[in-house]
Amino acid sequence: xxKLRRSGRLVDMTNYLLxxxxxxxxxxxxxxxxxxxxxxxxEDLAIIKDIFESQKIGSLLTVAGASGGVKYIxxxxxxxxxGNIEALCKQLADQERLLPGGYLYMMDIIGNPHLMNQVGRxxxxxxxxxxxxxxxxxxxxxxPLAYAVGTYLDVPVRIVRRDHQVTEGSIVSxxxxxxxTKRMQxxxxxxxxxxxxSNVLIIDDFMKxxxxxxxxxxxxxxxxxxxxxxxxxxxxxxxxxxxxxxxISITKLSExxxxxKKIKVETGNFFEKLAEMTEVKQ
Length: 282
What we know:
alpha/beta; Rossmann fold
């Protein structure tokens, strides 16, 4: 890269940091990239850090030492998050989404990269203080959201399947009971997908009783892996028995009247969990 003026350097450095969240970037790398002294790079980073934090874009974590550097950590802009989640609730409450059984048609939302990136950033910010090695979801509707979360956490994604894919090699399979239908089902994951001791963030698009998520938790036990957290795009409220206790939800399906075609969607427990996290930090 040719030598840039400071203004150009700041723009390029900001863009690089935003595209590499949770990645430790050495000052030497930036110094060589821009052909500038480390002292100048440090001054630039201080400017970026001030803007990131004042605008609630994220924070810059400085790691000292020979192997140190700087790391961009996305954070939650609460005001922006409220606006995004309220808009999402409004979209989900459209009566035309209603499907038999009280489910919602969500493929247009899940297939919207902009929306999934917004939600992915929210989950990534909420779990930024956790040790996460892998994001895991079950095929197929949770995949776009899982990749959005994985991008912001800078970790790989693993996909649990209900059918065996030959290209995945040897697999580990378990049977689990669907929380809503009480039917026995099977899910599997390639043996090469996880290392023992991996910390896994489970992401799902919709949770009713939580049978699928409970199945993924049981599957992780077979790999001797740990549950780092659970994130759900939509949770159903009217459930007799919830199989999952601790989770973070973006929205809540609080009322469904199939006969009257009435849907009520509210904000999930996201902001409650955010408040708890803030209290812990303080």
